[in-house]
Records
---
Amino acid sequence: MEHIISILVENKFGVLARVAGLFSARGYNIESLSVAPTLDPETSMITIVTIGDDKIVEQIIKQLNKVVEVLKVTDLTETSHLDRETALIKINTNAKPEHRDEAIRICDIFRAKIVDSSPTTYTIEITGDVEKVEALINLLKPLGIKELIRTGRIAISREVAKVASRPQAVKA
Amino acid sequence: MKKSGAEIFVESLKQEGVDVLFGIPGGVVLKLFDVLHQQKDVEVILTRHEQGAAHMAEGYAKATGRAGVCLVTSGPGMTNIVTGLADAYMDSVPMVAFTGQVSTSLIGNDAFQEADNVGISRPCTKHNVLVKDVNDLARTIKEAFYIANTGRPGPVLVDIPKDITTDKAEFKYPDKVSLRGYNPTYEGNKYQIKQAAEEIMKAKKPVIYVGGGALFSDAADEILEMAELTQIPVTMTLMGLGSFPGTHPLSMGMLGMHGSYWSNMAMHHADLLIAVGARFDDRVTGKLADFSPVARVVHIDIDPTSIKKNVHAHIPIVGDVRTVLKQLNIILRSLDGNVNERKQQLKPWHNQIEEWKKAHPFKYQQDDKAIKPQYVIEKLFEMTHNEGIVATDVGQHQMWAAQYFKGKKPRTFITSGGLGTMGFGFPAALGAQRAYPDELVMCITSEGSFQMNLQELATAVIYKLPVKIVMLNNGHHGMVRQWQDLFYEGRYASSVLGKIPDFLKLGEAYGIPGWRAEKPADVESVIREGLKYKGPAIMDFQIYPFENCYPMIPAGGAQHEMVLEDPPDLKTKGGGSKKMEADDEGVLPA
C-alpha cells in the first residue's frame, strides 16, 4: 500500500542520499520526494511517497530513525492528514482555435491558474490533492500537453484528528 | 596557538585514548602520517594491504570492546577497506576509519586517486562524514568515536581532504557530544521487563538465546546470573560465543546451521525464547515459517530495527542488554530465590535436552591414517587449557572451531559472522594480539581463507606479533566442496585449490618457522612445537580433505530438520569420495 512518510532531518549534505539509500537498497521506488527547510533553517523536511509492503515500510521507518541526522519520522498514512501537490502544465493551443477557450473553462472548473501565456501555449498552475491534479491533467491531455512538471506530494497531519483522539476533547 | 589539521587529528586521537592505528600512507594523507611519525603515543602499524588494516582494527575492537582505528589514503586505499567496513557493519564492530580525500577544490573532478568515499561507504557504515572545514575536524572525530562506540556499535568513516590536513584552526577538543538525532535507549521499559519476568517464571520449555550484542554490552555476568537463577539452558549464536561459559552445565553451545543438534531441537520445541542481543539471522532460524512454532519471544536488543525484523517479538524490550538484564535479574531474584525448586520444575525440559544431546552429540570418525579436522581443534582446545584468544576465518574450519573450541571467555572468539569474510581471521588475530601482546592468540584458518590476506605475515614479523597460525589444510574451499557434494552431485566447480603453496616454505621466506602434520600421530607434537615457539608460527595440518561439517540445517530447511551425517548415497555421486579411493594417503590430487 501507499505510504506518505515525513522525515525531519538536519539540513546537511549527504543526508538525503542516506535516506534515499534505505529505499533503493530494498528495491523500493520512491514515487515522489520533496525536500525544503523548515522554520528552523538547520532542519529540513523530507516527504516521501512510496508503495510497499507494510512490514518492509515499518522496517524502513525504523532504519530511518537510526540515521544519525534524522530527527523524526512520521508515517502520515497512519493518521488523518492533508496532502497537496502542485503541477505546472504547459499546453499547446494552436491545434484548434477553440482550444484556448476550452483551456480557460477547464481551469475555471478546477480553480487552476494560467500563469504564463504565449500565442501558442498556456502554462497552467494547479495545486490540490493527487486526484484533482490528475483529473486536470487527464482533461487537458486532448488539448495537447507540451510539458508537465509536478512537485511531488507534501503532507501535514490534521489537528482535528489529534484533538478527536483525546477522549476529554470529544466530550467538550 | 593554531594547529594544522594533521596536528588536530593526532591530538584528537590522543584525547580518545587511541594507542594504535593500522594503515598505509599515500599522497593525500602524507601530512597525517608525518605528524604521527613525530610522536610516540599513537603507534602506527603499517600493514601490507588496506584490507588487512581494516580487519586488524576489527580484531582489536572485538578483543577489547573499544573502537579500532585505521587510516588509509584516498581512492584505492579507501576502496580496499570496504570489505572491512561491511564486515564491521554486519557484526556491529566499533571502528573508526579515517580516509584521505583529494583537496576540496578537486573533489568531483576525477582527480588522481579520487573516489567518492562517503558515497561508497554509505550503505556499509553506521555513519560517515566528509570534513569540509578544519574547524569541524576535532568535533567530527569526537562524534565519530562516540557514534562508533555507543548504541549498537558500528563502523564510522571520516573522510579528510588533503587541504584540511594543512589548514590551521584553534584546537579545542569538545568535552561532550550533542547529536539531536542520535540518542540510543539504554534502560529497558520497566513494564515490559516485568512482563518478561513473569513469562520466564511461567515457561516450561524456555531457552536463552544469546547473540553478539551481549559481548559488546559486557553482559556475560548478567547472563550467567539469569541462567543460574532461572535454570534456563543457554544457546549462543556464532557471534555470541564466549558470552556464556561453554563448559557450564546449562550451556547448549552454538545453535543454527552448524549448531548442536540439542540446541536447535530445544529452540524448535521451546515455549519461550529469551533473545538477548541477537537478531534472528537466517543462519540461526533456518526456514522462518517453521521456526520455533510455539515459542513466545522476549527480545532484548539496543537496536529497534532488529526487533520484529524476521521473527515476531511478543515482548520487545529496547535497551542495552546488560542494563536490561540487571533490571530483569532484580525482579527474578525477588520472584524466586529457590534455584532447586526451579530445577525441579524444569527437570523434564532438562532431561529432554539431555536426551537429544546423548542421541546426537558432536561426533566424527577418528582415523589412524588421515587427520580429522575436529581432532585437531579438540586437541588444540585441550592443550591450550582454555587460555588465549582464537580468531577464525570463514568456512568449515570456522564451524569446527565453534563446535569444538568450548568454554570460551567473553571476547576470546573472534570471527566474521554476518558478512562471512574469508581473509578476516589472520589480520584480526594480529589486531587482537596487538591489543593483548602477552596473550596466546591463535588464528584457526584454512589454506583457502589464509591466502586471501597472507601478505600480513610481514606485519606479524615486523611488529613482533606472535600469532599462531593453525591451518586446517584440505586443499579445497571446504564448505563450497561440501555443498557441491551434497547439492551438486559432487561436481567440484572451482573449489579445488590443490597443494600449493608449500606453507612452510612460505613461512620461511618471512622468517616464520612452521610444522606440518600429515598423520594423526603428528598432531600433538605439531601443536606443542607451534605453541612453544616465541613468535609467529605456522602449523600446517594436512587434514582429510573430504570431511563434511555436521550437523547441518540445509539452506531453506527448518531448524529441527538437521542432517547429521553424510547421506548414504553421497559416495555414488562421483564426487570426492571416488577421488579419495584413488589416493588413500589423504593426499590431494594436484
---
Amino acid sequence: MQTIGPGVGRIVLRPHGSEAVFSELSYAYPLKLLSPKVSQRNTAVVYVLSYGGGLVGGDQIKLSVEVHDGSSLVMLSQGSTKVFKTRPGHQLAQGQNLEMNDLTCQHFDIEVSPGSSVFLLPDPVTCFRSAKYNQVQKFRLSGDASAVLLDWITSGRKSLGEEWVFNRYYSLNELWVDGKRIARDAMLLEEEIPIQSVPTRTLADRLQPYSCYATVLMYGPLTQAISRTLTAEFEAISVFKQHTRPSLIWSISPISEGEGCVLRVAAGESEDVRRWLGRALRPLEGIIGMDIYRRAFA
Amino acid sequence: MDEEEAYILLLLSDGNLPTGSFVASAGLESYATHGFLTAGGPSGSINDKLLAITEFVRDSVMTYARSAVPFLSDAHREVQRHLDAAPVDQDAESTLRILVALDDLYEATTLNHVARRASRSQGVALLTLYSKGFSQPPLPDQPSSDIDARAGVASTLIDKLKLVVRREDTPGHLPICWGVLTAALGLSVERSQFLHLFLHARGSLSAAVRMNVIGPYAAQQLLLHTIRPLVIAEAEHCRHLRTGLRQLSAGSDQVPLFDEDVMTEGGPAMTWPLGEILASRHDLQHSRIFNS
C-alpha cells in the first residue's frame, strides 16, 4: 500500500451488482474511516472519525471522495467533531508547518458523477475555548447528481460555561454543478477587533439567544421533493408582531432557480436543532433507508 | 480630497437619489417583528431601543461589509483600469466579462433570496441612475476634452452592462454596480467603500425611523456619534479584502478566474447567521412596509 500524508484520506465508491463497493478507502492518522456493512441497495455508509474523538490544533484533514455510476454515499460522524484548543508546545507531526500549528483544518473535496448521490450528515462541530478551525467542503456534481450537505456548529461546552468562546471558526461550503459554482456558503465567526471608545460586542452577543446554527445545502433530483415540501411549509408561515424571540428559527431559500435550496436553522439547544432536522429531512429515509437515516439523526 | 471628489460624495449621499434604497430595511423589519428589538420586554425605555438598533446596525454592517466590499473593490478596480486605458483600449468586452464573473460569484455567495432580490433591484437602479442622471448632457458645439472622452467610455461600458443585465445574462448586484458607478464618476476606491458602508448604516436607521422605532433626531444622533466609529472601523478592516479575482492583463481573452486559495482562506464571508435567517423570513411577516 502506498503511503499517504498525515490526515489524508481517499474514498472511491462504485456500484457492483446491487451493492455499492469501495474501490478505494484509505486514510492516515489522525483521520479514520470506518464503513459498516449496510443492506440498503447500492448505498454505502462511511464514518469520518478522528483518533481520540477530536481534532487538535495543527491537525489537517484532507479527504477526497468520488462517487460513481449511480451509487450513493452517506457520510456520518460519531458524536460531534470536537476541536480542542491550541496546545502550546504539543508534538508536531512530521512535515507540519510550525506557524500553522494552532489552526485545525478539515478539507473535503467530493465528486459526484451523474445519477450518483452523496449525503453528508455529520454531528455538529463543537469548538472548544480558543480553538481555531477552518473547514472547507467542496461538492462537484455532474449532470443529474444529487447532494445533501449538513454543516452545523454548537456554541461550545455549555456545561463548562463555554458559549461562543473559540478563537475562530471559518466554514466554506461550495456547490459546483458541471463546472459552475452555483452556491458559495462562507461563514466566519470570530470576535471583532476592539474598536476604540466603543463598548465590546462579543461573538456571543451577536449570536444570542441561540447556541446552535445549522445550514443544509441541497441540490439535485433526489432533493426536489424535500425542498418543495419545506418551501411550502415555510411560505405558509405568517409572522405577527412578537415581543419575545422564538426558541427555534429557520429559513429556506432557493438556489439556482429552485434546482437546489439552502436551509438554515438556529435554536437554543443543539438537540432541538437535531430533532427539527430529523423531522424536516425525514423523506431522505426513502432514499438512504430508515436504518441509515436513524444513524444520522438518532 | 479634491473639490470634485467632494462634490460627487455630496451627490451620492443624497437621500433622494432614486436608488430604491428607501424600500429596503436590510432585514431590520423582520428583526423587529421577530421580537429582537424588544428582547428587554415590550415596554423597554428609549435607551433600550437605541441600544437594540445600534446592535442591529453593528452586526448588519459587519456582515454586509465582509460579504460585499470585496466585490465592490474588485469591480471598482476593473472599471478604473478600463477607463485609464481609454481611449487606447476601448474594447469593453474583457472588462464586461470580469464584471459578469464578479456578479455571478456574488449571486452564488448571496444565499438569502430576499437580500438577493433587494441587491438586484438596487444594482440595476444604480446603472439607470448613471445613464439617465449622471452621464454628460448632450451639448452641441462643445469641443470634446479628455474628460469627455473618459466619460464617454464610462457611459458605453455602463450601457453595455445594463444591456447584459436586461437580457438577464447577469443579475446586476448592488456592490458590483456601486463599484462600477463610483469608478465611472472618478471616486477613489477608499471613498467608494466608506460611502457604501455609511449608506448601508444610514439606510437601516432611516428604516428604523419609518418603522417608528426611533425618532428622526435620535437617528441623526446615533449616526453622528454611535454609528460613526463602527462604520470607520469596518471600512478600515475591509479596505484590502478582495474576492480572489486574478489580475489579468488588459484586453485579455482569458475567462476570468478566481484564485481558489484566496477564496478558501480569506474570501468574502458572512459573519452573522442569525441575520441571514431573519432577513430570509422577511416575506413571512403578516404586515410589512419594506421589500427587504
